[in-house]
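User: Sequence recovery, please. Input:
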């Protein structure tokens, strides 16, 4: 047992966090006092809490992902609001995420893409958004070879990949013109033989 210097209660050793600074290897305050102080401090320093969390999550990406998914499940309304706010602040990134999700569904995002290649794809979507002023209609990121093509038997098949070298920025109007005119059979004859 040990006495807590904050609440002055005798508590078992297991009720104290470890501290290498102290002679007995335990903190002066008990766990519940520490947690109370910590949460009071956190309310006064939300920015510091956020910054610490960002740093920690960089070092522990798997754990961070787990906690953020758990939090989203437990707080669906807050999670949706947060998502919406983020999408408004990061329109380019949001487009990249949506495109990647779609491409993954169609099995068009290769698993062998490196982190920096994925980052380059994201940057292209951000650039498309930033170059919006160049065109009177919307800028879109287009798959040069569409993700879904039609083969000679009229069947839909995965053809293009969601990779940087298959992406280009097009105005919405040009993209529509290109539309579904893409000739898979011609492409196959020309490039695949
Ligand atoms: Zn205490």
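Assistant: Recovered sequence (193 residues):
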């Amino acid at each position: 047992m040990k006495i807590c210097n904050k609440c002055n209660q005798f508590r078992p050793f297991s009720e104290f966090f470890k501290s290498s600074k102290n002679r007995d290897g335990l903190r002066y305050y008990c766990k519940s006092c520490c947690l109370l102080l910590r949460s009071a401090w956190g309310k006064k320093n939300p920015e510091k809490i956020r910054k610490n969390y960002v740093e920690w999550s960089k070092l522990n990406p798997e754990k961070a992902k787990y906690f953020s998914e758990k939090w989203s499940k437990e707080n669906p309304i807050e999670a949706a609001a947060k998502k919406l706010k983020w999408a408004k602040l990061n329109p380019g990134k949001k487009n990249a995420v949506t495109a990647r999700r779609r491409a993954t569904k169609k099995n068009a995002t290769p698993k062998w893409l490196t982190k920096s290649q994925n980052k380059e794809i994201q940057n292209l979507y951000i650039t498309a958004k930033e170059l919006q002023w160049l065109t009177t209609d919307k800028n879109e990121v287009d798959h040069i070879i569409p993700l879904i093509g039609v083969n000679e038997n009229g069947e839909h098949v995965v053809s293009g990949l969601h990779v940087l070298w298959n992406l280009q920025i097009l105005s919405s109007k040009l993209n529509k013109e290109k539309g579904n005119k893409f000739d898979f059979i011609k492409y196959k004859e020309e490039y695949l033989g």
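Residues 91-192 form one domain.
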